[in-house]
Amino acid sequence: MTCIASLALSVHLGLNHAYNNIHPHIRCEHLPQVTGLFYNSERNLSAYIAHTITIANTQLELGLVTGYTSYPIVPLIRLTYKDFYITPALETDTHSIGVVVGIEFKIATK
C-alpha cells in the first residue's frame, strides 16, 4: 500500500456558488482500490473509497464520497491524467451542472 499527501488546486466551471479551491489531500492506494481524505469544495472534510481503472497515464476513479451538504454519501467520478483531474459537479439548489478541473501536487509518499 502506498499513501500520498498532496495539495490540489481547482477551478469550478458552470456553477453558481463560490467554492474552496485549495484541497489538502491524503490518499492511500492498494490498486485498484483507493481511499482518502480531503478538504472539499464546500469547506468540509470528505472521506472516499473508489475503484481505479488505469490505461497508460489516465485513470478513471469510480466510488463513493462523504462530506457534502446535499447528501451524506454521493457518487465519485474522477478522471485523472498525470497530475491533472476533472470531475463532474452538481448544485442541488440551483440545478446547475458543472465540472471541477484541477491539478494535484504530491508533497510526500510513504
Protein described:
The protein has 110 residues and is mostly beta strands. Helices cover 0% and strands 72% of the residues. Strands 1-2-3-4-5-6-7-8 form an eight-stranded antiparallel barrel. Strand 5 (58-66) and strand 6 form a beta hairpin.
Keywords:
globular; 110 residues; 0% helix; eight-stranded antiparallel barrel; mainly beta; single chain
SSE layout and pairing:
Blueprint: E1 2-13, E2 22-30, E3 33-39, E4 45-55, E5 58-66, E6 73-81, E7 84-91, E8 96-109
Antiparallel strand pairs: 1-2, 1-8, 2-3, 3-4, 4-5, 5-6, 6-7, 7-8
Strand content: over 45%
Helix content range:
under 10%
Shape: globular
Order of helices and strands: EEEEEEEE
Largest sheet: 8 strands, antiparallel, barrel
Give the overall pLDDT as a whole number: 95
How many individual helices?
A: 0
Number of strands: 8
The value of Rg in angstroms is 13 Å
How would you classify the helix and strand content by structural class?
A: mainly beta
- N- to C-terminal distance: 9 Å
Low-confidence spans: pLDDT under 50, at least 5 residues?
Answer: none
Major β-sheet strand ordering: 1-2-3-4-5-6-7-8
